[in-house]
């Protein structure tokens, strides 16, 4: 099913109000409290989240992380994301698997500075969430920074450590173009399950034993950069700019969701 998406400014009142999705006249906030566990496809029902989904009792919107990352990377705090779908489950267009189509579109039309201000979410004490050998550490910092350490031993995915410190141009050029990826056997299994059959290895980044299949990396550490992109988008669900030093190692969406909840839990405790 093809889905159209329109991203609009807020009503122009000048008061920051955050990011929200409008689907079939229903509003769903881009917030960790709206996280949905509904899988993108029944084949993923028993797996950890492969994307980030928000929703309510009747509708859900999947794969919002690339859009949320683009909004964060450009410093956009307020927008209305309208989807022309009345289906109970809708997915944000994935395009080439990166955030670049979103950043390109935003920069083409320009950004508007609001009259009001938005209070950042400031981490006052260190927070650590972990599961197995995956972890996310969130520490106090005067400025935002994100680091992702990618290390998948025994796979052809290159290990790397990448960082972003809040600079808009750095996000546009060094983070946004990084595409989502899968191993060749995973892509084969998904095709056999009837998923992503309209996509080929030339469309998406599929990694075989000798590197990308019918494709090439945009960066030597593109996989790590994409994991960083996802991390930025997932933690945007705290609902305001995050002021903290974030260091993630081998983490995925589920642990990032846990980290976002822990950050907001701390805000309540320290009030």
Q: What distinguishing features does this structure have?
A:
four-stranded mixed β-sheet, about 25% helix, single chain, 6 helices, lpxc deacetylase, domain 1, five-stranded mixed β-sheet, about 270 residues, globular, alpha/beta
Per-chain topology:
Blueprint: E1 5-8, E2 19-23, E3 26-29, E4 54-55, E5 60-62, H1 65-73, E6 79-83, E7 89-91, H2 100-109, E8 121-122, E9 127-131, E10 134-139, E11 145-150, E12 160-164, H3 168-175, E13 181-183, H4 184-192, E14 205-208, E15 211-212, H5 222-235, E16 242-243, E17 245-249, H6 253-269
Describe the protein's architecture and organization:
The protein has 271 residues and is of the alpha/beta class. It has a single domain, classed as lpxc deacetylase, domain 1, CATH 3.30.1700.10. The chain is 25% helix and 24% strand. The protein has six helices and 17 strands. It has helices at 65-73, 100-109, 168-175, 184-192, 222-235, 253-269; strands at residues 5-8, 19-23, 26-29, 54-55, 60-62, 79-83, 89-91, 121-122, 127-131, 134-139, 145-150, 160-164, 181-183, 205-208, 211-212, 242-243, 245-249. The strands form five sheets. A five-stranded mixed beta sheet has the order 9-10-17-11-12, with helices on one face.
* Total of DSSP H or I helical runs spanning 4+ residues: 6
Give the helix/strand class.
alpha/beta
**Level of helix content?**
10-25%
Largest sheet: 5 strands, mixed
Look up the CATH topology: lpxc deacetylase, domain 1
Report the average pLDDT across residues. Answer: 90
CATH class value: Alpha Beta
**Total beta-strand segments:** 17
**Count of the separate structural domains:** 1
Side-by-side strand order of the widest sheet: 9-10-17-11-12
| Content of β-strand | 15-25%
- Going by CATH, the homologous superfamily would be lpxc deacetylase, domain 2
The end-to-end span amounts to 45 Å
CATH architecture: 2-Layer Sandwich
Unreliable stretches (pLDDT < 50, length at least 5) are none
How would you spell out the order of helices and strands? Answer: EEEEEHEEHEEEEEHEHEEHEEH
Shape category: globular
Radius of gyration: 18 Å
């Amino acid at each position: 099913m093809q889905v159209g998406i329109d991203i609009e400014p807020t009503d122009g009142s000048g008061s920051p109000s955050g990011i929200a999705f409008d689907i079939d006249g229903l509003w769903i906030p881009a917030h960790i409290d709206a996280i949905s566990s509904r899988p993108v496809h029944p084949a993923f029902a028993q797996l950890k989240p492969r994307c980030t989904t928000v929703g309510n009792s009747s509708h859900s919107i999947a794969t919002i992380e690339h859009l949320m990352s683009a909004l964060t990377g450009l410093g956009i705090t307020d927008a209305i994301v309208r989807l022309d779908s009345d289906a109970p489950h809708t997915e944000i267009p994935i395009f080439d698997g990166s955030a670049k189509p979103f950043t390109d579109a935003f920069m083409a039309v320009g950004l508007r500075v609001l009259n009001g201000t938005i209070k950042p979410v400031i981490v006052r004490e260190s927070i650590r969430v972990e599961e197995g050998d995956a972890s996310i550490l969130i520490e106090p910092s005067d400025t935002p920074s994100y680091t992702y350490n990618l290390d998948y031993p025994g796979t052809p995915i290159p290990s790397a450590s990448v960082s972003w410190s809040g600079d808009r141009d750095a996000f546009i050029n060094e983070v946004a173009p990084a595409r989502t990826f899968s191993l060749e056997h995973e892509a084969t299994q998904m095709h056999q399950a009837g998923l992503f059959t309209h996509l080929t290895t030339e469309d998406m980044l599929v990694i075989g034993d000798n590197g990308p299949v019918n494709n090439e990396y945009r960066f030597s550490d593109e996989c790590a950069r994409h994991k960083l992109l996802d991390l930025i988008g997932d933690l945007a669900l705290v609902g305001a700019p995050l002021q903290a030093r974030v260091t993630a190692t081998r983490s995925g969406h589920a642990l990032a969701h846990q980290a976002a909840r822990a950050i907001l839990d701390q805000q309540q405790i320290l009030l």
